[in-house]
Amino acid sequence: MPDWSIKIVQAGSGAEFVPDLYGAKPGDPLKTQQDDLVTWNNTTNDPHQPWPSDANYNPLPDAQVLPRGGPSYLSDVIPAQGSSRPSYDVAQPAGTPQPSTWTVYYCCKLHPTVASERGTIVGTVPPPGDA
Amino acid sequence: MPKWSSQNVPSGPPRPRRFAPRPGLLAPRPGLLAPRRLAVAAIAIAAALLPALPASAQWIPCPAQQDLVTIPVLAAPDSPDPGNPQPQILRGTLLLSDQQQRLTFRQPPAKKPGETGATTRCAPQYVRVFRGIGAVPPPPPPASDSHYADPLPGPTLRARVGDLVQLTFLNQINPSNFGNSIDRGDQATGTGCDESSNGYPAKVPTGGDTFPNCFHGSSTANIHFHGTHTNPGSTGDNVFIEVRPSTRVDGKPVVTEESVRKSFDEFFAHCKAELLPDPLRQWPRTWSDLPGSYTAKQEELIRKYDETPGIKKLWPVNEAQLKEGAWPQYYIGAYPYCFRLPEYTATAWPPPAPAPAAGHAAAHAGGEGSAELAGAEPARALMMGQAPGTHWYHAHKHGSTAIDVSNGMTGAFIIEGKYDDELNKYYGDGWTRKQPLMVINQIGVTPNLERGGAGRTDAGESFSVNGRLDPLVHMKPGEVQMWRIVNTSFRSGAYFLAPQNGFQWRQLAQDGVQLADVNYQGSLNKPFLLAAGNRADLLVKAPTSPGAGCKDHGSCAYPFQVIVDVDPSDLTSLNPVTLLSVKVSSGSAPEMKFMPAAPSFPPFLADIKREEVKGTKKIVFATSGGPSTGAIHTIDGQKFSGQVGEVVLLNTVEEWKVINETYGPLISHPFHIHINPFQVVEVFSPNDPLLDASGKPVQKTDPATGKLVNESKYTFSKNPLPGQCRLDRNHPDDWKPCDAPARQQDLVWWDVFPIPSGAQLPDPDDSSKTIKVPGYFKLRSRFVDYTGYYVIHCHILAHEDRGMMTIVEVAPLRSPYSHH
Question: Which helix (H) or strand (E) holds B491?
Fold first, then answer.
């Protein structure tokens, strides 16, 4: 299954999240399948930390995200010019019934008020048969 | 074979993939937005509404069927006098970098190869790749329907026995294009293993992978020259070194071909002078044999790297090794490979003993650290030449072998010799170089264990050949081609079904070692298994007239099918897939014939006789564990520790019983040893089915499932069925094949051989129990010519990364006593 990379690029005094795909623009959603892996490549000279948020990009409280390495944890702080760790496995959210399509909203935990430092990951369940 | 999804077949000119939502769904959202960021915010807001949209992964069009691509070649020059070839030098630069490529994925992931309902989709993916600077022809550009290049193996290396190999290896991977991967030198947070939010490496309640036997350090690399018989240390086939990516300044690597050129030119000149006079010479021996300009720069780069806050430092490791006289482990950006492909020139085997003071063999014999004792060693002759044939190379850094090889860090290494000369004498000058080379791989990205179950492709990715799924090979009616096939897959074997539609084949070589004529003659149209790491040279003949169901050649593509497996015992439960297709041109062409006899057999490949055996060993491969611990892959009960597991004296012959105590899922771990090939003298596969007179499996109904299953060839029952072989539960040492004794002559040479999986056979005294019966094979090998350390391991490379590897030490001949 695929791995995906999202670039963190400098934009003015802040940064932007851009799926590392031909033709992608800042803020474009990254479309994934369940259990694809996603990493962030920080090309800026500042640290960043992708962090789950609500649909208004308010960072979720730690209690809803931790533990580190759990299904909601996106990444440690990514140093300047570094890449993310651990890899984010696009997990299907819990619920009854479990959604077949869902969106993970995230922002930079270190710069939550910078509107450009936000993104979305859309997850889908792989088709059961012929796709 | 997975079908091509019609929606993925390109139907028009390429266009950028965009994922803007439907305009009608755009809606303003509240808050927080600086005016200058309104445009970006609008996109973000739209994305927030995407749950209402049908979504899928960011697939891109897959290619239509493509021709088999020609892989670029880095070659040694031909000797000026072909009638009397003199050693030449394969000089080149192997660049390791990263690239986004169009990779294929079987959908849904859980489908097995060839299973009904499986389709193929494509996605742009970052992979680590080998490229040869100056290799010809240049790699093909991206297809017209894609912004991304298709996968391509590393450049084919081509040299001749006797030649010297001098490769500049550059690691210019940009690690930021991949998830942060830690090895001993990286940031000291976490476990040292790769980590994912799926819970890897500690997904299981107890146990789980631990450093260093886990996936890690995937941007660090080295090269294993698989199939070479050469110096296993220093700048030879040394898999203990770790070359980190070059440091970057302003995004660009600072270690380049140019930056090391002067140092490496100096080293290669020195290396040539040391190695050309004597094929047994093992040089360089110590780090001080390398140019000071290189070692000083390496020390500077590593010390600078060690200044990074919070990392485990590299230089102290090197420093400690240097103090012990060992070869240091860590490098940054560049490494010079220099080793000899020894040519056996004696006309018989064993070779005549050299005169006491003959050449370098006496002066320089011995392994690393033995220089002070060199005089104590007897002069010796080269005992085994490099076998000419189809060999290969691949990344072999412990912890990242699987991911790197599946990314495509593999390539063929064709070593020519008299074998080729004789083929060309029969088929025409230069014929062998025009023949197809087929590098099979299962190209993929992060290993399964790091992701959740819905994303796992437990059967491995689909087989590609030279980076393409089901490529098209072109032949003329009645043409004979020589297919050099390398299974570089990190996981699966390819079981080649017998040729159909009037095609015929004969096998010329196995694992880069030519077959004796009797085996060549007996190979006509025989199915065969290429486990991960195996190679075969085939002569394939196209039919002169169209096959059944084909009106004329020009309109048909004939499939060559394989079964994708990790155990030969599961062949009957799996579906065949098309590995490649052959299109035979219309019209007629002169019919070619199979070479009437195999190329003459070199004397150094003489069978290893029982009388030669001086030592025996038992080596146990096992996969154990369960849901609470995860799978545990061991050799002799141990995961790889960096310690020596087996010791052999130089120039001795040993017979090893290589045992597989894996029970449960059938896994025939492909045993591989570096440096010296071996012959197989006995195979015991307790999972073999009982066959009827027509060769078909005898079946019975499984009382537990009600399904038909194969009756076992082996049984503990006191009343065996006709044809069954009874095992005595009280005498495990007698559990062995019950067929006629294995042939003891004209044996095949291998460097990878799947160890038959263990079986759990019904206990005749208690129907609720089973008795575990290990599988095994026995090998004989001559541990000759080169001392030092190298490895044995499972060639299911995720098993190797997770611990199924140990070190073999071949100790030099020394005597504490001499007459005077």
Answer: none
Say what the pLDDT of residue B798 is.
Answer: 96
Q: B707, B701 in Cβ contact below 8 A?
A: yes
Buried/exposed code over B21-51 (b: 16+ C-beta within 10 A; e: otherwise): beeeeeeebeebbeeebeebbbbbbbbbbbe
The alpha carbon of residue B517 is apart from the nearest alpha carbon of chain A, in Å, by: 45
Q: At what angle do helices B257-275 and B292-306 cross, to 10 degrees?
A: 130
Cα distance from A1 to chain B (closest Cα, Å)?
Answer: 6
* DSSP per-residue codes, A13-65: TEEEEEESSTT--TTPPEEEETT-EEEEEE-SSS-B-EEEE-TT-PBPPHHHH
**Would you call A92 and B454 a contact, using CB atoms and an 8 Å cutoff?**
yes
Q: What is the 3-state secondary structure (H, E, C) of B666-707?
A: CCCCEEEECCCCEEEEEEECCCCECECCCCCECEEECCCCCC
Q: Which helix (H) or strand (E) holds B298?
A: helix B292-306
* CA atoms of B587 and B114, how far apart (whole Å): 33
Assess whether pLDDT exceeds 50 at residue B374: no
How far, in Å, CA of A86 to CA of B750, rounded? Answer: 40
The reported pLDDT for the residue numbered A127 is 76
| pLDDT tens for each residue of B115-174 | 888 899 999 999 999 999 999 999 998 888 889 999 999 999 999 999 999 999 999 999
**Res. B34 pLDDT band, cuts 50 70 90:** very low
- ipTM score: 0.96
Token digits of residue B244: 């980190």
Mutate to test the interface with B, among A75, A81, A89, A98 (most CBs of B within 10 A): A89
| CA A29 – CA A105 distance, rounded (Å) | 9
CB-based contact B452 A89, cutoff 8 Å: yes
Q: How far apart are CA B467 and CA B469, in angstroms?
A: 7
Give me B354's structure tokens.
Answer: 């050299």
SS3 A5: strand
User: Residue A33 has which token pair?
Assistant: 């399948």
Q: Binning pLDDT at 50, 70 and 90, where does residue B354 land?
A: confident
User: Is any Cβ of chain A less than 8 angstroms from the Cβ of B767?
Assistant: no
B183 in contact with A, Cβ within 8 Å: no
Q: Hey, is the C-beta of A51 within 8 angstroms of any chain B C-beta?
A: no
Question: Mean pLDDT, chain B, as a whole number?
Answer: 88
d(CA B399, nearest CA chain A) in Å: 16
- H or E stretch covering B775: strand B775-783
Nearest CA to B128 among B105, B96, B156, B167? B96
CB contacts, 8 Å: B107 with chain A:
126-127, 131
Tell me what pLDDT residue B818 has: 67
pLDDT digits (tens, 9 = 90+) for B763-796: 999 989 999 999 999 999 999 999 999 999 999 9
Work out the minimum CA distance from B4 to partner chain A, whole angstroms. 10
Strand partners, A118: A107
What is the spatial distance between Cα B398 and Cα B329, in angstroms, rounded to a whole number?
A: 12
Which parts of B417-534 are beta strand (E)?
437-442, 463-465, 472-475, 480-487, 493-496, 504-510, 513-514, 528-530
Cβ separation B107–A131 shorter than 8 A: yes
Do B126 and A16 lie within an 8 Å CB cutoff? Answer: no
Give the Cα separation of B216 and B194 in Å (integer).
5
C-alpha gyration radius of chain A: 14
Chains A, B: CB pairs < 8 Å: 220
Our CA angle for B496, B498, B499, nearest 5°, is: 105
- Is the N-terminal amide bond of B350 cis, ω within 30° of 0? yes
- Alpha-carbon distance of B593 to A49, in angstroms, equals 66
| Contact predicate B590/B478, CB 8 Å | yes
pTM for this model (two decimals):
0.92
Residue A86, C-beta contacts closer than 8 angstroms, at least 6 positions apart = A68, A69, A73, A75, A76, B179, B190, B194, B195, B196, B197, B200
